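Data availability excerpt. The first of two example chains:
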Amino acid sequence: MSYKVLVVDDESEIADLIEMYLQNENYTVYKSYTAQSALEYIESEKLDLAILDVMLPDIDGFQICKKIREKYTYPVIMLTAKDGEVDTITGLTLGADDYVTKPFKPLALMARVKAQLRRYKKYNSFSEPMDSEGKETIITTSNGLVMNISAHVCIVDGTSVELTPTEFKILQTLCEKKGLAVMSEELFRSVWQMKFYDKNSNTITVHIRHLREKWEIQQKNHDILKQYGEWGIKLKAEKNDYSRMKRKVFYQLIIMIAVSSIAVLFLYNFLRGK
């Protein structure tokens, strides 16, 4: 199958280089040096992935990404400057799935492209209630979340929530852990399908924040996704998870006090009998 990839970069050398590597993988490439022509491709072609440079002469890559997310869910990879941490956060917040800093190694970019395409096609192909590995394709939780994995549909409290492929995979991974915390490194490998994890990267943090924002549109629960610093993330199993935990601790404390009182009373009577 020939994937259709849009490449947008005003530096012709970089755009041509990316095009060459994509064509070597038998991808169909739509190359653009301006935002205007890129927008025309977005409207006229059925694309599978877009690679967008942040800095463009007419409209920046952020606006193109935002335009894509108004109608489409295919992966978007942003190309940012070496020190562009703000650009990275902005791009991910607007719906980008990944980012690559300049200068970059073409083979590393191709690895990210392939990973994004694998995930996108997997979650946009309809299948039976069970996938090839025998896993259920519909996940429900007691906090109002329903995920149809095969149809790439997420419903919160009866309302559909639009998620990017990366956001969907993050939420699916957390749901499958059934309320257990997932290490950041494990989550990165599962979602991005790459072995190397940069602990200094804020990619996961930004995606989790974006998921929270989308979730909170439907719910008033601001702590449904719990992040433990850079260590890991947990999806709470129930809305009242915290209240249940407090009750459990309270009951345990009452039992401890009762047992201690009985022990003290027994000791007192024992010493008194002597």
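And the second chain:
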Amino acid sequence: MAFGQQLSAVRRQTGLTQEQFAEELCVSRQAVSKWESGRGYPEMEKILYICNRYHVTLDQLFAEEVALPAPAAVQPEEETPTLPQPTLQRAFTAFLTNLSPKNKWLAAGVLLGVAALAAVIGLFLKGGNSDMATTIWIAAIIVFGVVEAATAGLTSIWFVLGSVAALIAAVCGGPLWLQLVLFFTVSVAALAVTRPLVTKLMKKDIKPTNADRVLGGVARVTERIDNDVPTGAVYIDGKTWTARSAGGSAIEKDEMVRILRMEGVKLYVEKES
């Protein structure tokens, strides 16, 4: 028997119409009809609710839903092809292929930034002039700025500030060693100052889950809560949840209760004083 037929049998055994069943699950009658006709499945949260509410198991609901494949015919052994030996080029290509677009921009920016720093250090070792250093710092500012704009993840903005400080030193005629010191010092300082603030602001955008919203809230008992039977349901925030008494004592219908914790899809409650 397929899932839809099992679900229909469970509903009929409880004496509910499709409309009443849909109201219990907070969905439309059309959704229930679609499930029972085998044209779709409910969300996992609702499947677990059905199992707990109507005392059926997942095995019962999905009995014979998935047919076992026929055993494959034994094929004659074939010579195993020799796999190509891994090389540095293949490994690097696989690494780049698996990167997300954002991380590809980041990797490109880091490589170009390292190249710019290597060029500045090379100038320092060879005694290059300040005009060449100014050009390199301007290029570094552009590269790090483009990477930051492409990723929008505060990954290279600190290097932009460090490059600006080094560029000012270069324009003022400062030696290359001073430019490098300013670049690293300002970049590290900017990272240390701004990163904690950004992390704190990003945490404010985290939205609570359904469990976070109902925990600690007050709900109305829609079915007598009795852990020994077991039965019980509560209604809160437009949804009906399976409920159990946290203290073990029975709670009558229409009582107001406070939600203490959630285990799976069950809410554990106590009578509101």
